[in-house]
Amino acid sequence: MSHSDPPDPREAYVEAVLAVVEQVPPGRVTTYGSIADVVGSGPRRVGSVMAREADGLPWWRVVRADGSLPPSHDERAHAAYAEEGTPLTASGRVDMVAAYWQPS
DNA sequence: TTGGTGACGGTAT
DNA sequence: TATACCGCCACCA
Q1: What contacts A35, CB < 8 A, 6 or more positions away?
Q2: Residue pLDDT, tens place only, A46-82
Q3: For the domain A9-99, what is the CATH code?
């Protein structure tokens, strides 16, 4: 209310992304692009948020459109997939046909 | 202010 | 199927 009442759309955007990620059911995944579509932004913005705010989030449930993740996180992601029973392809990527979850 | 960067996506090769 | 390239656009030095 004072001279400065920072609505900070950046923070609201981050919260919106995190809210969607929290809704992805175990054993299922969604994509950066799908989240971007829901929150109204580009996939690279979503990736940027994940890189900074992944702390305490099921980040492994957010994958690329082809069902893969960066090699750096691939190993930890696979451990989570095995634990949650996430369907994978023979190539070692998430089976998008079987595991894709569309955020509402 | 300008330019480089990036947990991406889609298309071409 | 894998690799290369370009397009996008907010963020940071």
Answers
A1: A17, A20, A21, A43, A46, A62, A103
A2: 999 999 999 999 999 999 999 999 999 999 999 999 9
A3: 1.10.10.10
Residue A80, Cβ density class (10 Å: 0-12 exposed, 13-18 middle, ≥19 buried): middle
**Half-sphere CA count of A27, side-chain side, radius 13 A:** 4
Q: Does the nearest atom of strand C lie within 7 Å of A89's Cβ?
A: no
The pTM of this model reads: 0.93
For chain A, the domains span: 9-99
Q: Which residues touch strand B (CB under 7 A)?
A: A 31-33, 43-48, 50-51, 54, 57, 59, 62, 64-66, 69-70, 72-73
Question: For position A5, what pLDDT does the model report?
Answer: 60
